[in-house]
């Protein structure tokens, strides 16, 4: 390989200078000296060229670096906008309202000590007493957020719909825009429930099925297609079981990018005992040493694009399992749990957000907000 040009040039330059000094001391300019001088001149030109080239190179590097920053910014920005933050951008009104709001001084020394309020990946776990509902509502109200709910009432499950809707009017995002999407095969049996201003119900017809497992799992596909049709016109979505009622506030404290609810039945269990799908042939498989919490299939939500990706993934994996002749232990709930192991929720709701009426209340549950009603499975399901 050739010697680096600056090294050759450096030698040339030093030699030339020595010769020039010598010829100046001699007081005359012999042809040899003139040649040396010319060499010095060439050296100077080369120095200038090198400096210019260096600047050019630095310029190119600078532009390249900026271009990369620009490109990566573009890449981030081209992801669904919803992924960016749990909060929507602040508006000016928010500042005004917050300035005039009186609320209890926050503390990092006092608060709930009987429960864990943050996951190891630093997602909040929402328990009663960990948030100020008035403050939170005042942060979100100026942004005029809209929340969609999906609820399925197929076959005899239509009987749960009236209570679900009525109690949602009393407790679910009261004072906010709420759009309930009811999926049913019995649209003419829809209960008449008075909805407050800014709240509405839309009914969508779906086919019935002979297997409750299919009705339950098929929700993922219908949630996926609904979100595609919504085209980001709503800010958040929650997907809830119909055989349940609201008993307490469920509001802005539950908002987040990807939100999951801890199942009330298993939060004292070791992870190896959680009812995840344990057969390796299933795409919902989780090993005994895997899994964080056991999350409910009956309540989850978040920003539209996050829930879309989760629903789509669960649906595709459920269908792939079906092609392989396997159905996960708890259908889409098993797939949801697998998804949430790899894609950690940004907010976790405590079992206050999905209790079960047949369970007695535990001391850490100060307030039951939403709870599954007791039902006669044999009587209401199409199959046992
Ligand atoms: C509280 C909770 O986390 N429940 C989950 C649990 O059982 P569940 O016993 O709660 O399941 P489920 O019978 O309530 O079925 C789930 C939902 O599917 C709909 N449905 C079901 C049957 C039917 O004939 N018609 C109908 O509309 C309805 O919206 C119901 O709420 O495990 C299921 C596994 O598949 C689901 O993940 C449920 O969400
Ligand atoms: Mn249920």
TrEMBL record:
Cofactor note: Binds 1 Mn(2+) ion per subunit.
Binding residues annotated for Mn(2+), in chain numbering: 241, 243
Plastid found in the keyword field: no
Residues annotated to bind UDP-N-acetyl-alpha-D-galactosamine: 152-154, 157, 241-243
Binding site for an alpha-L-fucosyl-(1->2)-beta-D-galactosyl derivative: 263, 333
Keyword Nucleus: no
GO molecular function: hexosyltransferase activity; metal ion binding
Entry GO terms, CC: Golgi apparatus; membrane; vesicle
Active site positions, chain numbering: 333 (nucleophile)
GO biological process, one term: carbohydrate metabolic process
TM stretches of this protein: 45-64
Subcellular locations according to the entry: Membrane
Main localization, broad class: membrane
Cofactor(s) needed for function: Mn(2+)
Membrane topology: Single-pass type II membrane protein
SUPFAM superfamilies given in the database record: Nucleotide-diphospho-sugar transferases
Keywords for the protein's UniProt record, in alphabetical order: Glycosyltransferase, Manganese, Membrane, Metal-binding, Signal-anchor, Transferase, Transmembrane, Transmembrane helix
InterPro entries reported for this sequence: Glyco_trans_6, Nucleotide-diphossugar_trans
Similarity comment: Belongs to the glycosyltransferase 6 family.
Protein name (Swiss-Prot/TrEMBL): Globoside alpha-1,3-N-acetylgalactosaminyltransferase 1
């Amino acid at each position: 390989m050739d010697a680096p040009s600056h090294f050759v040039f450096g030698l040339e330059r030093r030699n030339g200078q020595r010769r020039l000094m010598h010829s100046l001391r001699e007081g005359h300019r012999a042809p040899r000296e003139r040649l040396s001088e010319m060499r010095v001149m060439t050296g100077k030109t080369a120095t200038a060229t090198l400096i210019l080239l260096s600047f050019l190179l630095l310029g190119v590097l600078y532009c390249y670096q900026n271009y990369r920053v620009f490109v990566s910014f573009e890449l981030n920005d081209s992801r669904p906008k919803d992924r960016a933050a749990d909060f929507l951008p602040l508006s000016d009104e928010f500042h005004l309202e917050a300035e005039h709001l009186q609320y209890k001084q926050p503390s990092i020394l006092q608060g709930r000590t009987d429960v864990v309020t943050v996951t190891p990946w630093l997602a909040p776990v929402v328990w009663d007493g960990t948030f100020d509902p008035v403050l939170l509502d005042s942060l979100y109200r100026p942004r005029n957020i809209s929340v969609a709910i999906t609820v399925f009432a197929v076959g005899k499950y239509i009987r749960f719909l009236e209570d679900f809707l009525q109690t949602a009017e009393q407790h679910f995002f009261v004072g906010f825009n709420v759009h309930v999407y009811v999926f049913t095969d019995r649209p003419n049996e829809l209960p008449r429930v008075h909805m407050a201003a800014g709240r509405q119900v839309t009914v969508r017809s779906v086919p019935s099925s002979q297997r409750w497992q299919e009705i339950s799992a098929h929700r993922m596909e219908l949630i996926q297609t609904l979100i595609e049709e919504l085209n980001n016109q709503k800010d958040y979505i929650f997907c809830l079981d119909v055989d349940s009622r609201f008993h307490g506030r469920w509001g802005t404290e539950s908002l987040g990018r990807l939100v999951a609810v801890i199942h009330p039945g298993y939060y004292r269990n070791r992870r190896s005992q959680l009812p995840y799908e344990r057969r390796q042939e299933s795409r919902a498989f989780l090993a005994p040493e895997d899994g964080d919490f056991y999350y409910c299939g009956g309540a989850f939500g978040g920003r539209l694009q996050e829930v879309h990706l989760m629903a789509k993934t669960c649906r595709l994996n459920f269908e792939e399992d079906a092609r392989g002749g396997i159905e996960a232990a708890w259908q889409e709930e098993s797939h949801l749990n697998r998804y949430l192991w790899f894609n950690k929720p940004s907010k976790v709701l405590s079992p206050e957000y999905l209790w079960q009426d047949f369970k007695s209340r535990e001391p850490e549950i100060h307030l039951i907000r939403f709870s599954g009603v007791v039902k006669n499975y044999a009587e209401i399901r199409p199959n046992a």
